[in-house]
């Protein structure tokens, strides 16, 4: 059997399955319970000190 044919069959079956499992894992990770609080907190970082500058203590946290 030619090496190209062997690699092509392997890629068509197991690599495709592995990439699909990776994709599903990423989707599950992004939409896991409790993750929206983390994402909302991260998205609000630029607006935390809109009204006044951060103090030294606040800047370290």
From TrEMBL:
Transmembrane portions of the chain: 14-31
Ranges of biased composition (kind: Basic and acidic residues): 46-61
CDD domains the record matches: cbb3_Oxidase_CcoQ (cd01324)
Keyword ATP-binding: no
Sequence segments annotated as region (Disordered): 42-61
Any one Pfam family match given in the protein's UniProt record, by short name: FixQ
Keywords: Membrane, Transmembrane, Transmembrane helix
InterPro entries: Cbb3-typ_cyt_oxidase_comp (IPR008621)
Protein name: Cbb3-type cytochrome c oxidase subunit 3
């Amino acid at each position: 059997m030619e090496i190209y044919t062997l690699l092509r069959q392997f890629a068509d079956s197991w690599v495709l399955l592995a990439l699909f499992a990776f994709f599903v894992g990423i989707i599950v990770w992004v939409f896991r319970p409790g993750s929206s609080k983390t994402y909302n907190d991260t998205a609000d970082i630029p607006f935390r000190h809109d009204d006044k500058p951060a103090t030294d203590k606040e800047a370290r946290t």
